[in-house]
Amino acid sequence: xxxxxxxxxxxxxxxxxxxxxxxxxxxxxxxxxxxxxxxxxxxxxxxxxxxxxxxxxxxxxxxxxxxxxxxxxxxxxxxxxxxxxxxxxxxxxxxxxxxxxxxxxxxxxxxxxxxxxxxxxxxxxxxxxxxxxxxxxxxxxxxxxxxxxxxxxxxxxxxxxxxxxxxxxxxxxxxxxxxxxxxxxxxxxxxxxxxxxxxxxxxxxxxxxxxxxxxxxxx
Length: 219
Fold this sequence. Notes:
Layout: H1 22-33, E1 44-50, E2 54-61, E3 68-74, E4 77-82, E5 88-92, E6 109-111, E7 120-122, E8 124-125, E9 140-147, E10 150-156, E11 171-177, E12 182-187, E13 193-198, E14 201-206, E15 217-218
């Protein structure tokens, strides 16, 4: 029989943080020494878009071209980017407050418009949610912070940390968020697009020409 009591467990006194082990120090040094470099082939950067007050992003698929689309939610409204061309193809500066309610669904989402009208797009960012961290065919994204709170985005083909192989061959440091808060990092469901969103901008890379295999837009 369980006996209930009003007394909680004793409060532990804060102690000194343990020092990094030799292994941790070597790992941290390797991360700090890895410069920002362009994503390797077949990835190509298609967009860098300033977005003030960015809150989150989500993926959809263009019903006509098959291109991955990226929906951006910010304090200034919503925008829709074509991930293959980098073009902003739609903008809604005054979305319906009821449609934008974060209480409407336990999973964060936004209503689609333009080419994805009538769908729902799941959003990851400041209020929660998450994007794919693997592409399905070997590519992996990781966020590390060897100098917290500044975060770095790593792209790899070696399975992820500890990245024992030579830098620039199987793992790459492709983004350093030292000026804004990181909001979301991930691949599209198709695995053809990777996106990095901060509180002030959106960066997109693609390796495809369209025809995504799946979509995060739900009818």
